[in-house]
Amino acid sequence: MNRILILLLFIANLTFAQEFTAIVSKKNVEVGEEFQIIFSANGSASEFKAPNLLGLRKISGPNKSSSSSMQIINGTINSSKTTSFSYYVSALSEGVLTIPAATIKIEGKKIQSQPIKITVKKADPNKKSGFQIGDNVKVEVEVSRRNIFQGEQVLVSYKLFSKINLADISITQFPNLNGFWNEEIETNSKAKVQNIDGVNYRVWEINKSMLTPQKSGDLKIDPMKINITVQLKSQNRSGDIFGMFNNYKNVVEEIQSKQITIKVKDLPPNPPASFNGAVGVFKLRSKTDKKIADANTAINYEIELSGSGNLHLIDNIPVNFPDDFEVFDPEKKDKSFTSKNGIKGKLLFNYLIIPRYQGEYEIPSQEFSFFNLRTKKYETLKTNAINIKVNKGNYQKNVIASSKQLIDENSQSLSPIKTKSEFKLINKGEWYQQWWYILLLALPVLLTVAAGIRQTYIRIIDKNPIDKKYRKSLKIAQKRLKNAEIFLKNDKKQRFYEEIEKSLLNYFSQKFNTEIADLSKEKISEIFIERKIDKDILSNYISILEDCEYCRYSPASIENNDLNIAYNKASGIIIEIEKQLK
Fold it and tell me: Would you tell me how many other CB atoms lie within 10 Å of the CB of residue 379?
């Protein structure tokens, strides 16, 4: 009896496991209206063969998905697996339409689904008819956090979801990031498959950025707009009874992401004197490669700032070196990387210093203050003071001594005071025959000649004020674009465009006394017009900023760009602005 019961249960389970069904999302549709067909098989399925979908326009499919479940009832484990194949279609004409049976193999046995009938009505002219891309494709924006402090970083990612095949994707408008400093992150161009509510979507991460707010308040990130092109098969041409010649048409539609708002809080009042906008969690240390050296011998002094936060906005950490040290500009090494929680890593500031004189010296402790996002408080870090002993060295005899050494040496070499005076004739010649008298007579003449030469040179220069303005403007441009020139020489294209944009915005901010966070195309235009700067210069300035922004958003587009042309444009626009303002 027990064996018979077990056999019956096995047969029942086998029958259940071999179920193959077909369902539609709607049985009454209009011409051109989209609906879904789903074929589901219970058990280990293979060799799915779709039916002939005559009278239907296939939008997407087959989209395969699978799921499994396990139950324990009275100590017995029951498991099941379901495999589904879905289609998105729309009807081409009115009437009663039959969707034929599909076939599949389950546990080695071939099974058919049941045919399905649907009724297709004439499309309502008041409704939006035909295929709509927006029903099948969407762009979404994801942010790591929406409530942050000024200077705290937020990761923003734009993803494109599609359940249909796309012919082309074109970004028509990047989001306006007023109030944010943008650090672009490279993305993977390959699509990933993601199942959402039983539907398979192909997902592209089309843009990812690390944003740092430069001011407080409710900062809005505008939508990203994208043109989507889909190639659809039209109805067969008249006379093509076999459907051998298919007509296709491109359907283009613009979609956009939602606008998002980031709430940015002010930093607490009364920051330390050494605070310069650093926000995050940091560590600070310093070191030298030697603590005993000869005079005129180079020493390397290094400051290392490590941690996570807005490292990319920290340009330098000032150091107070002894007066008798010759100090060269520091070399900055950026060893940071971008993670989902922000920018991490370290910055190295390497100073080449040369002590010129013998003695005992101290490089004092340096301070660095930042706002700690963990404790929500300002903190100040200090390096250790470093003592350096400088020996005389082999070449110090040819070097002028320091002021302190001169005082010490002179105090030891003073002659004793004499109590009696002796007067001697030091020159028997006449006073008017002495060299110093002749020099005094010639000095006014020499000074007059020198002044005349100088005035002549000034008059020549002043005759061409354009050249004079150009030379001054060129110096300003070269100073502003110093870092960009370094990236140009090293062929670091993306960093080059970032530095060009940063340099132009900093130049504009300081020149016209305007906060960087407040700069927009409208604000720049308003200031240029107010200062009566030519419209062509305004247009070129905006164009360069837009080119930099585009190259930062689309790294692949800059492979063939000539960086020298971009550098000359940026330098030229600063020169033109300076010449207009003189």
Answer: 16
Cα atoms in the 13 Å half-sphere on the side-chain side of 3: 0
Q: Which helix (H) or strand (E) holds 406?
A: helix 403-412
Cβ–Cβ under 8 Å, residues 156 and 143: yes
Tell me the C-alpha to C-alpha distance, in Å, between residue 436 and each of 136, 319, 433, 443, 445: 99, 49, 9, 10, 15
104/113 Cα distance (integer angstroms): 9
- Rounded Cα gap, residues 142 and 160, in angstroms: 11
Strands 217-221 and 192-196 come out as unpaired
Classify 151 in phi/psi space as left (phi over 0), alpha (psi -120 to 50) or beta.
left
Percent helix, strand and coil across the chain, each to the nearest 5? 30, 40, 30
E strand or H helix that includes residue 345: strand 342-355
Closest of 164, 169, 159 to residue 228, by C-alpha? 169
Tokens of 183: 């650090």
Give me the amino acid identity at 421: S
The helix-helix angle for 482-489 and 563-581 (nearest 10°) equals 170
The rounded distance, in Å, linking the Cα atoms of 570 and 568 is: 5
DSSP 516: G
- Report the alpha-carbon distance of residue 149 to residue 371 in Å, rounded: 10
CA-to-CA dists, residue 537 to 196, 251, 255, 469, 532, angstroms:
51, 40, 34, 16, 11
Q: Measure the CA–CA gap between 208 and 459, rounded to whole angstroms.
A: 57
Mean pLDDT of 561-571: 81
Q: Which two tokens stand for residue 493?
A: 């294209």
Helical spans, DSSP H, in 464-555: 465-480, 482-489, 493-511, 521-530, 535-553
pLDDT at 2: 47
Can you read off the two tokens belonging to residue 244? 């051998």
Q: How far apart (Å, rounded) are the C-alpha atoms in residues 157 and 152?
A: 17
Are the C-beta atoms of 499 and 490 separated by less than 8 Å?
A: no
pLDDT tens track for 300-349? 999 999 999 888 888 888 899 998 888 888 888 888 887 767 788 999 99
Q: If you search the block for the tokens 């096995």, which residue do you land on? A: 10
Q: Compute the Cα dihedral for 184, 186, 188, 192 and give only its sign.
A: negative
For residue 467, give both structure tokens. Answer: 């050249």
Mean pLDDT of the chain: 78
pTM recorded for the entire structure = 0.48
565 pLDDT exceeds 80?
yes
Identify any residues that bridge with 162 across adjacent strands, giving them in sequence order: 137, 202
**If DSSP codes are grouped into helix, strand and coil, which group holds residue 357?**
coil
Q: How confident is the model at residue 13, as a pLDDT?
A: 44
